[in-house]
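Blinded run. Sample ID left blank on purpose so nobody reads anything into the name before looking at the predicted structure. Input follows.
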Amino acid sequence: MAVGAGRGHVSGVTLQSTPYSDAELRLAIYRFTAETTRLPTHAELGPLTGLAPEEVRAALARLAAEHVIVLNSHDGSIRMAAPFSGIATQHLVRTGGKEYFANCAWDALGVIAALGGAGEVVSRCEQSLAPIQFRVGAAGPDSAPCIVHFAVPAARWWQDIVFT
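Blinded prediction complete.
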């Protein structure tokens, strides 16, 4: 990853030289994650965006308040930037020659959609713990002997998004 003078770029995409908006920070998070397969740290976002550490913290807090990202309560690091997970989960996604972790089965499909629309999901059934693996292409997921069950209605997901 190359970092320019005062403003960063990822994969040759130079970011604007105007003050960073929260939307631009969000895009920087996603670009970093797409390239590196992991969510960025506060320390990495500063040089990438040209923001001071306190500006990064404040912007991330705003994004979290708007339900754009989820921060870890113990250290303020990025826990989720849906559909990407900041920690290893049982929902592994392979796409574009890279591996990513998703927050849930639904987000596993979202990772593939966000990164090009073709890939593979490796997960497990939470009831039986049996492994589940299927491919996703332009027409959607291949047939698999499984279903996706949402135990919590979507309207209540943000009451405890990490559990959901």
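Unblinding after everyone has recorded impressions. Residues 22-36 form the longest helix (15 residues).
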